[in-house]
Records
---
Amino acid sequence: MKRWNGWGEETITAPLSAIATAFLQHVVGIGTPPRDATLEEVAARLPASRLPVRPGISTDPIARIRHARGQSLPDWIALRGCCIDSFPDGVAYPESAGEIRELIRYAGEVGSNLIPYGGGTSVVGHINPLAGDTPSLTVDASRLNRLLILDETNHLATFGAGVTGLDLEAQLRAHGYTLGHFPQSFEYSTLGGWIATRSSGQQSLGYGRIEQLFAGGYVETPSGALDVRPFPASATGLDLREIVLGSEGRLGILTEATVRVRPLPEQEHYLVVFFPTWEQGITAVREMVQGRLPLVLLRLSTALETRTQLALAGHERVLSMLEQFLALRGMDKRKCMLLIGVAGHAAVAKRTHAEVLHLARKHKGISTGRMLGEEWHKKRFLTPYLRNTLWRMGYAVDTVETATTWDRVPALTSAIEAALRTGLAEEGEQVHAYSHLSHVYPHGSAIYTTYVYRIAADPQETLRRWQRLKGAASRAIVAERGTISHQHGVGTDHQPYLVAEKGALGLDAMRHLYAQFDPRGMMNPGKLVL
Ligand SMILES: Cc1cc2nc3c(=O)[nH]c(=O)nc-3n(C[C@H](O)[C@H](O)[C@H](O)COP(=O)(O)OP(=O)(O)OC[C@H]3O[C@@H](n4cnc5c(N)ncnc54)[C@H](O)[C@@H]3O)c2cc1C
């Protein structure tokens, strides 16, 4: 069963090796395992539902708790600290667009808000009900999960919007196709959630972000159904797909989505190259992406992230051999690891592999072959399970992400890391912050920074620490003119910083647009724009 207060299946754990534990204790200090609230303790504080009884709407306490929060660090703190200030009053599991229309009508009649819910993997507060007098009904799309049409002539597939990444790929792969969208939350996040948050998968370099993959679909809104046709291209004014993308549940509920699929690649492999310095690594990656090499992944870690990843990998003997090999070739602790993904027809993949190594060598890169890359690929969806382990050891982990143009990448990365590292100086707490370039483009790159700090005895103090760190990192992003989110969306956590990039007029335009579809403001209020 899925954990109610953490990541993933209860049966799956990610133990930390002794080297990794020692490393963490060195960089952050010794953690104190917190005492987490039990599900029964949270259930005992659950207020009564304010929704009138209706068939098809569950007011079961466990269902309401399980849909109360997503996966952000404040969400974890609220669940584990038993300090949740709002719950959905009910949860519905519709099986058709008709049932969703009926739920929208019902919510309007009883004066309830509606929260579209995909996999609940939001990390910015997207699916949390607002505290206050208005009841909330969460609409869980998980029963809209089937492959409805696979159009092999046009390479289009239509799915129910609640299909998870895992089920979507399994259904496509059975026919020899892939969508190629693999966010790290892939096992639980859904097609509808990806579209509503403008998600980016790990192989976006080769397959594109969700906005390139989303061709069209149906959205049930309080003002009627919006039908977005899957044209290959069109010159008919505003592209309606853009209204749906990133709408964060404000517009309506996406019931079906058509996506652009492609045949499974003949070959796919991952390799690792080390660069002597961060600057050399950045230049090499920029040249690779601007040279339009047909790669599916380029992921460059800073020197500190490289050291952290190697320590967390925990294979003492292999790592010592690797360190010796790289030291003999003149690399020191400034070395940075680049993960490269190659996929496609065998001949193209072979040529691309050779070209990418040629470019890497030009910037003093040294290939260590496929072992580390293949290991990453095999375990990539297990990494989030480490959050559970670290929490139990007394450490909180969170990430911030942004994107900017190439000229600003080094300064923005340094500014975010500095803001985080010094963010808890007043309380004498150390923060371990490290980054990688996660998604690269010819014109710039996304920056993804992970930070680890110690959990306090009082959940409210753990939350205050997070607020200080998140605020400092977000202000650094705004000051250095990065976007406040490259892939996680806005939700509630990024809202205060949105005006800096959209402007007052831009935000007003968004408000008016959503009001057109939802005049009473019942669709996921309080998220994205106020
Ligand atoms: C461990 C972890 C790793 C992650 N890795 C990535 C990553 O690599 N890339 C990335 O982009 N994100 C990542 N995320 C963030 C998250 O997975 C994405 O934002 C994802 O797109 C959310 O999908 P979901 O189905 O879980 O949506 P939810 O969290 O359920 O909802 C998110 C938003 O979408 C709306 N929504 C959901 N379904 C519908 C629908 N059918 N119609 C209308 N609106 C809807 C909701 O109302 C809400 O506003 C990660 C999160 C975690 C916890």
Note: Residues 7, 70-71, 115-123, 126-127, 141, 161, 183-185, 189-190, 192-194, 196-197, 199-200, 202, 248-249, 253-254, 384, 487-489, 524, 527 surround flavin-adenine dinucleotide (CB under 6 Å).
---
Amino acid sequence: MLGATGSIGRQAIEIIDASPDLEVVALASGSNELGSLAAERGVEHAQVGGDLSELLDECRPDVVLNAVVGFAGLPATLWALENGVTLALANKESLVAAGDLAIGARERGGGQLLPVDSEHSAVFQCLEGRPLETVDSIVLTASGGPFRGRTRAQLEGVTRADALAHPTWQMGPKITIDSATLANKGLELIEAHFLFGFAYDRIEVVVHPTSVVHAIVRFRDGASLAHLGYPDMRIPISYALTYPDRAATAVEGLDFSNGLSLEFEPPDLETFPLLALARHAGESGGTYPCAYNAANEIGVAAFLAGRLPFAGIAGVVVETLEAVEGAPAADLDELVQADAEARRLAESAAGALVP
Ligand SMILES: NC(=O)c1ccc[n+]([C@@H]2O[C@H](COP(=O)([O-])OP(=O)(O)OC[C@H]3O[C@@H](n4cnc5c(N)ncnc54)[C@H](OP(=O)(O)O)[C@@H]3O)[C@@H](O)[C@H]2O)c1
């Protein structure tokens, strides 16, 4: 369990504790100590930071739950895919940054890649067992975040606390800011492209404020299948960890007796430019998605540290994408270099944008 101390990690512990078939053999975090968590659970292998593929080599798990935040999750994603070990993937940044390498590793390794992101788990479930040629397109839903309905001018001066107040999901700080800027949906768009193999023009994003519908798949006969449930990450975490059994969880099913209305609207691409920028980076291919992700990570960190205004996050990404070369990476070393270069450019863009 990688990212054991985070929001997904803590919820996964709850799922694992409720399942007699699941046992944690290794824990990893970024900086928080794991000693007491490992001791409590009798876990022998634990690692704080560093290259997590070393930990995985040591403990050889049957399933890797990658719930690390950010590009730091990449070695673990590639390790699991290359070794044919089932990967329950919450760490979307690794698939966005290294999609081509990850898909190559999955083909060589032949293991399962099970999405933990709720929208992708929903798409996976709607698609399961259905021939891909019967699919017309997929639709990812976005809550719209805390600033839905605002104009660009109304976003000036929003604070860290405003941006961290997500209306429907309780999550770690980085993804919560990504939800406020819609970069999260941009990352998910690229993630969906690599997970399911659809071209970008067959992946749509709609805003759905209550986050009850997680994704929709349209089929060629005009029918659509949707996946619904209260927004609770324990459902997709459990689905990935107990696939194909679909174990029971403590989450309530939907209650229709009090009325349930489902509203959808198009995203406001002008106020939230990071969604369209992600689509553009994805369509450009090569290491553009890697640069998008790196610049966004730098922008979010600078915003959280009070060094950048909210709109500056998109500004940093725009400037970085304009400056990078975006050439495809032949291997992990080249990808790591592309990531480092994008981070360097993003840091300097962030420095120049400080008010
Ligand atoms: N939270 C959600 O509801 C949700 C939903 C969908 C997808 N996701 C995705 O799941 C991932 C985790 O999100 P989260 O919300 O759980 O984040 P979080 O609460 O911030 O937790 C992040 C976890 O990653 C660990 N970590 C950070 N850097 C690391 C490193 N270099 N090596 C090893 N571990 C490291 C952290 O350890 P420390 O505690 O030591 O910092 C922590 O355990 C992200 O990719 C996010 O996009 C989350």
Note: The CA atoms of residues 24 and 260 lie 38 Å apart.
